[in-house]
Design brief:
This protein is an alpha/beta fold. Helix content is 44%, strand content 10%. Helix 6 runs antiparallel to helix 7 and helix 12 runs antiparallel to helix 13. The relative contact order is 0.07.
Length: 723
């Protein structure tokens, strides 16, 4: 066996001999080649060790009939180079070692004598124990080696100790033990396990790029391969390569069987549903081997409100492993959510805050619900329960509703209350919550989520801008949690569509001077600095016109109407008058006169807010104008209307992928996790009102030119109407 154990030393250009005693003299000396001017100690480069061990592994196959001697010749070449290292100044080693290894290999293949019989191997000491494989991320199953692959390798005591430290979260101890192993010799079959441990350390430190650099290249068995692909998938997802992450999960599937494989496919599906996929991802997936293209296509179809798309996917990918997933999505009573109609005559319970600080919000939603209920005709007995706006009140109201025989529950409203309901345990009846769970929480069977989230407006703005050819943006948002959520949603959406958020700034609420933030966003300060520099050089002040940055396509901001007027007028003052601007729906109030300050800016909002612009005047709008909750709370009234429509779909067993609602808050459909997706409308401010903008093709949907899938669009009045 070839043992690489001597440490290598590299010093700066001070021409210090590479011995441990002499490196201290080099510290502090500066070098033209090494600007840090510090003597640097290297062990054998890990890439060399990995490459050499991989070479030895390849030589296990017959090489000129003398496998062992070939490996030994290459090893002797390494030893010869190492022995001469102390007689000359250190230089970059990698090309010479690779060349020498090749010569040694050829020498062994040409002239080596037949291999000598190997002595029997001594029994391993009791301290050589079997250690469980490095655990993949939470939610993945422990891999099961396939038949016919190399068996699990017994780890050395040093590896076992390093892994034990990592498993209990002691990163410093784990790193120290791993580095100690790298300083010593290591058997080739142990190296992939050491590399896995090193990659897991990088993952624990939140360094996905380092994870990818440290992963093993040689898959000596299914155990190593499955753990490697799980780490690779998580790292690729962290850096935003969602197609690559899906490919890694699909590759991991090849190394598993039985329950482990089923669990891996569940993880793959969960990742697929979380990934912000676009049609360009489908094009990229076609360059990958295996089932990746089919998985990406299925992920796109699952986001769209048309069931016939599933049939087209089945025809396009007849032998894909996702066929089983399709069956669970469309079969009545199967999958995550029940598609079986509820029994007629069962009581519906509505949980809303009718007291406390959120009482007016609850009343507005209740008014919309009752109006829709009366318009549709009595479909079931209903009963309202007061939650008081607290998680404890929501749980108490849920218990009362269940005790009263409710077969369907709508509410609660606050996010904290929805979280409390989700964490309580299995839900015996469908619950249509009026808010959404945080992204990090897993789906809950029988829990549907409908929210008027500002993130929807940010995504709609990004969608519309990209459809108009605008791909680079700057943003100005409130400095609070609301602003952080909006910025994250906008950034993720525009980057998923191939655009970029160049810069973002926050402003303190209740401020009226946004010039500092706007100048920073538009890089006005750099232009003014250049003017000062030229003036200093010339000794006089030349004629000067401030210029903004030229790489931005549009502006995205958020604020109430008063804030919006100031923000957009100050953007125009700072040379952004020729840029399109998008805002969140908070900027608009029905009946407002935008004036010159907002003219030209755009926003995306629910269709209900544009009914006056469309000239519609249905019975619900007339009711809303007569109720106390109309006006500023008009959006909440519309939410109550659509909450009833969505609950009716759930009650009829029509909450699957193929059913959408052309609602008052948008075009609505449930995704595979039970969360309602909304498609909004956009408008442009004029000096006297608003003009509706044509609906652009949704960049997130599969386009017609795709040979396998067609655009899936529900035309107004064709199907899916709430009434």
């Amino acid at each position: 066996m070839c043992c690489i154990s001597t440490r290598l030393l590299r010093v700066s250009s001070a021409r210090i001999r590479s011995t441990p005693a002499s490196t201290a003299a080099a510290r502090g000396l500066r070098s033209a080649r090494l600007p840090m001017g510090v003597a640097t100690m290297y062990r054998w480069p890990r890439a060399i060790i990995s490459g050499f061990d991989m070479l030895k592994g390849l030589l296990a196959v017959d090489c000129c009939g003398r496998v062992v001697r070939c490996a030994e010749a290459a090893c002797h070449t390494f030893e010869a180079m190492r022995s001469t290292q102390n007689q000359r100044e250190t230089r970059p080693l990698t090309p010479f070692i690779g060349f020498a290894a090749g010569l040694g290999l050829l020498a062994g293949c040409v002239s080596a004598p037949p291999p000598r019989p190997q002595p029997p191997q001594p029994a391993r000491p009791p301290s050589m124990q079997t250690v469980p494989e490095p655990q993949p991320p939470p939610g993945t199953a422990a891999p099961v080696p396939l038949r016919g692959t190399a068996p699990t390798v017994r780890r050395s005591p040093e590896l076992a100790a390093a892994e034990a430290a990592l498993n209990i979260g002691d990163l410093e101890q784990a790193k120290a033990r791993i580095n100690a192993i790298f300083d010593q010799s290591i058997a080739p079959e142990q190296l992939p396990y050491l590399q896995l441990l090193n990659a897991r350390v990088a993952a624990a430190e939140g360094r996905p790029n380092a994870v990818l650099e440290r992963l093993p290249i040689t898959m000596i068995n299914a155990e190593v391969a499955a753990a490697t692909e799980a780490l690779r998938a998580d790292a690729l997802r962290e850096i935003g390569d969602f197609v690559g992450a899906i490919y890694a999960w699909a590759e991991r599937d090849r190394w598993l069987q039985g329950e482990a494989r089923a669990a891996n496919q569940e993880q793959l599906w969960a990742e697929l549903m979380r990934a912000p996929l676009t049609p360009s991802d489908l094009e990229r997936a076609r360059a990958f081997k295996g089932d990746v293209e089919g998985w990406i296509a299925l992920g796109l179809v699952a986001r769209q409100p048309a069931a016939d798309a599933l049939d087209r996917w089945r025809a396009a990918y007849p032998n894909h492993p996702g066929q089983a997933r399709i069956a669970s999505l469309v079969s009545p009573g199967a999958g995550r959510f029940s598609q079986v109609p509820l029994p007629r005559g069962g009581r519906w319970a509505v949980l809303l805050p009718m007291s406390g600080p959120l009482a007016s919000v609850g009343e507005a939603i209740r008014d919309g619900w009752i109006s829709a209920y009366l318009k549709a005709g009595a479909v079931a007995p209903i009963q309202f329960f007061d939650t008081g706006g607290t998680p404890e009140g929501a749980l108490r109201a849920l218990d009362e509703a269940m005790a009263g025989g409710a077969v369907l529950v709508v509410g609660p409203l606050r996010r904290e209350s929805v979280m409390a309901v989700a964490q309580r345990g299995p839900l015996p009846v469908p619950v249509v919550a009026l808010n959404q769970l945080p992204a990090e929480m897993d789906w809950v069977p029988n829990l549907y989520q409908f929210a008027l989230a500002p993130e929807d407006e940010a995504r709609a703005a990004a969608d519309h801008a990209v459809s108009q050819g605008l791909r680079t943006a700057v943003s100005l948002l409130p400095d609070n949690d609301w602003g952080a959520r909006v910025e994250q949603a906008f950034r993720e959406r525009i980057e998923a569509l191939g655009g970029r958020l160049l810069s973002s700034r926050r402003y303190a609420p209740r401020t009226d001077d946004f010039s500092a933030s706007i100048k920073a966003l538009m890089q006005i300060g750099e232009s003014e600095a250049r003017h000062r520099q030229v003036s200093a050089m010339l000794g006089e002040r030349p004629v000067f016109q401030t210029r903004r940055r030229a790489d931005v396509d549009f502006v995205f901001f958020a604020g109430r109407p008063t804030d919006g007027r100031l923000i957009w007028s100050q953007f125009r003052f700072h040379r952004a008058q020729d840029l399109p601007a998008y805002a969140t729906a908070m900027i608009y109030e029905p009946g407002m006169r935008p004036g010159i300050d907002l003219a030209g800016s755009r926003f995306c909002d629910m269709p209900w807010m544009f009914d006056d612009a469309r000239g519609t005047d249905d019975a619900l709008a007339a009711v809303a104008r007569e109720l106390p909750s109309s006006g500023s709370q008009s959006r909440l009234f519309a939410m109550g209307v659509d909450a009833f429509a969505l609950a009716a779909n759930v009650a009829r067993g029509q909450a699957g992928l193929g059913n959408s609602v052309l609602g008052r808050t948008g075009e609505l459909w449930f995704d595979v996790n039970g969360a309602v997706q909304r498609r909004l409308d956009c408008a442009r401010f004029t000096t006297t009102g608003i003009d509706l903008l044509p609906r652009a093709a949704d960049p997130g949907r599969v386009k017609v030119e795709d040979p396998y899938l067609e655009t899936l669009r529900v035309e107004d009045g064709v199907r899916g109407s709430a009434w």
